[in-house]
Description:
- The complex is a heterodimer.
- By secondary structure, chain A is mainly α.
- Chain A is 73% helix and 0% strand.
- Chain A is built from 4 helices and no strands.
- In chain B, helix 3 packs antiparallel against helix 4.
- Chain B has one domain (3-127).
- Chain A binds chain B through residues 50, 54, 58, 67, 95, 98-99, 102, 110-115, 117-119, 121-122, 124-126, 128-129, 132-133, 136-139, and chain B through 1-3, 6, 9-10, 13, 16-17, 20-21, 23-28, 30-32, 49, 54, 57.
Amino acid sequence: MPPITRLFVKTSLLYLVAAFGAGVLLALRPLLPLPAFVAGLSPVYFHLFMVGWVMQIIVGVAYWMFPKWSKLLPRGHDGLALATYALLNVGLLLRVIAEPAQTVSAWPGWGWLIVLAATLQWLAGLAFIANTWPRVKEK
Amino acid sequence: MPRLSAWFVRTALLYLGLGFTFGGLLLANKGVPLHPLTWRLLPAHIEFLLFGWTLQLVFGVAFWILPRWQTQRGDVRPAWVALLLVNTGIWLVVLTAWLNWPAWVLPGGRLLEAAAVIAFAVHAWPRIKPWMETTD
Ligand code: HEM
């Protein structure tokens, strides 16, 4: 398994644990006096699963297993794969913090951090598509 | 990968692009309100990413790597039908939400999505060998 794939797969497993952690917090909310931001975690909970775990493990395994691009660039541009990793994770972590924070704090900066989180994840999607598209070919 | 897998995976990547774009707009709009109509992207965001992207990627990769008979993948027609049905279903669901089409079109779209899954299962079932059969 190439090192870039290991990075994606291990990170994806951390998100899987984090997603279940968020699920536990959400389930405890009616029972314990938890901080108010916990109520704002529900979209985060779902996206920790779908973006943090599912999407990330797909990106890592596709990088590893999809047909080779060319002899020179068998897995596409590694810079683009690493950029996908950085953009997806910084974007998602920012969302995890800023989206619930905005529900409990009036600081306008949270809104702009959410915009940044959205932009980074969007760019991650584009980087992945750009690096993967040429590898999807008939044989 | 075989031709049908390339179709599934390329289509999936297109939906990923659209679904992430809509997700990005929805999220940005939560941070700094852009326009109230932005929320109307939510049904397409969900449909495109769960079925357009994730489901079709799974179909494409399954069609490619499930066990074969020598080089043959068995009856491939139901798998092609699945490609057609799932995409028609997705757009019926999304366009009903956007264009205020008659209410029955939405369950119709969902029915096509369900039929797509059945069609794919009909294709894939014999490729997954019975429990007692020896494997190679
Ligand atoms: C494979 C990836 C994804 C899947 C399957 C997915 C799926 C979903 C689903 C099912 C919902 C509805 C959840 C609910 O109503 O509670 C949703 C909502 C949403 N998604 Fe995604 N999503 C994905 C990626 C993204 C990305 C990358 C972004 C942003 C860049 C995003 C932004 C949003 C936003 C802002 C909402 C609305 C949250 C709210 O109700 O306040 N999603 N998504």
